[in-house]
Specification:
This protein has 368 residues and is an alpha/beta fold. 36% of the residues lie in helices and 26% in strands. It has twelve helices and 15 strands.
Length: 368
């Protein structure tokens, strides 16, 4: 039986639906990367509108469920540390197991010192939280969750409140826990870390699990559009053309502003403008008759992850026309100057025709 089972989970904030019919099984020992609202819903910190959640066989969403008892099976690590400021580290760690689990203070202290030694903080046992760094406080907060011997640990952006110099020490502790067969759900924007520790990555979009799979699948070969955009951190500029005498200067100006906003160098910006201009004119003349309505969408996307820049053009309700198709009878003198230029400065060009739509993708910059 799954350690965590979610059935048809729904959650909205007003008119905004953030979880819509989510179904998921999580097995013991799995490390899952997912979404914050979903994570908080498991402990009913965000109360679902409908659906069922089972934790180790008990339904926490049931009407008469002992929610506090079931919560003890889950350790929650928040963005902030929430240590009791008036208690030293040892008291922070011992309070819950003594009060809630009924173990002796002596046994609790022994267990606390054991965890502190594993994370290199034995010397801080008598320190007050205010005298610890952010990274040390977060490690203590994780130890506090572990003191309850939870079945699963939930991490809600555990490094987002830390100075960048302290992120590594917290991630190193979580890596250590993965070696102890601990079941973990982690919400993080540390993509390299998620790839390293997760068994399964969940990408949430459109109110549900949009795509899921192994880290290699999600990070190297995502299949769906929004996953691809997120992984590659794509930024977009789009422009629609519905007339032959379209505003070319507006197109150029939009590309220029887009390039400046995302730090694209001036040489590449100029190439983008030239490529888009030549491509649009080629498509207008080759795809549409003199009196045919024009419906062209052109977009430029830039990947922060690998600096790849793409131009995508779709000419809708048009006759089939591939401007880059060269017949054997064609010689260099018959090839249009714009086409020759596009081929020369592009890394890759793809064309397909589907249901009356001409689709062209041009890669500027090497795709990794």
């Amino acid at each position: 039986m799954s350690l965590i089972q979610v059935k048809n989970l729904c959650k909205s904030f007003g008119s905004l639906s953030v979880l819509q019919g989510v179904n998921l099984d999580i097995n013991e020992g799995e490390k899952i990367a997912g979404k914050s609202v979903f994570l908080r819903s498991l402990e009913l910190l965000e109360v679902p509108d409908s659906g069922q959640i089972f934790i180790d066989g008990e339904e926490i969403t049931a009407k008469n469920a002992d929610v506090n008892q079931i919560r003890r099976k889950m350790g929650m690590v928040y963005q902030k540390f929430y240590l009791f400021s008036h208690m030293n580290v040892l008291d922070n760690l011992c309070l819950a197991p003594v009060k809630l689990l009924g173990i002796s203070r002596k046994d609790a202290e022994s267990q606390a010192i054991d965890w502190l030694s594993k994370v290199g903080l034995t010397s801080k046992a008598k320190s007050m939280p205010a005298n610890l760094s952010g990274g040390q406080q977060q490690r203590i907060a994780i130890c506090r969750s572990l003191m309850m011997n939870p079945k699963v640990l939930l991490f809600d952006e555990p490094t987002s409140a830390l100075d960048p110099t302290m992120v590594g020490e917290v991630l190193a502790m979580i890596r250590m826990l993965t070696k102890h067969n601990m079941t973990m759900l982690i919400v993080t924007h540390e993509m390299n870390f998620a790839r390293e520790v997760a068994d399964r990555v969940l990408f949430f979009a459109d109110g549900g699990i949009y795509e899921q799979g192994t880290p290699d699948k999600i990070f190297d070969s995502p299949e769906r559009e929004k996953t691809i955009a997120f992984i590659r951190k794509l930024k977009y500029f789009t422009y629609e053309i519905n007339t032959r005498d379209f505003d070319l200067l507006a197109l150029h100006g939009g590309i220029h502003n887009f390039a400046e906003k995302y730090g694209i160098d001036s040489k590449l910006s100029y190439r983008l403008q030239l490529c888009c201009e030549e491509l649009v004119y080629e498509i207008i003349s080759g795809c549409y008759d003199k009196f045919s309505p024009i419906d062209i969408n052109i977009s430029v996307s830039y990947s922060e992850a690998d600096s790849t820049t793409l131009i995508n053009l779709t000419a809708k309700n048009a006759k089939k026309f591939n401007p880059f198709e060269i017949n054997e009878s064609d010689d260099e003198e018959n090839i249009h100057l714009g086409v020759a230029m596009l081929k020369r400065i592009s890394q890759d060009i793809k064309y397909n025709f589907d249901s009356g739509n001409n689709n062209i993708e041009i890669v500027l910059g090497e795709r990794k």
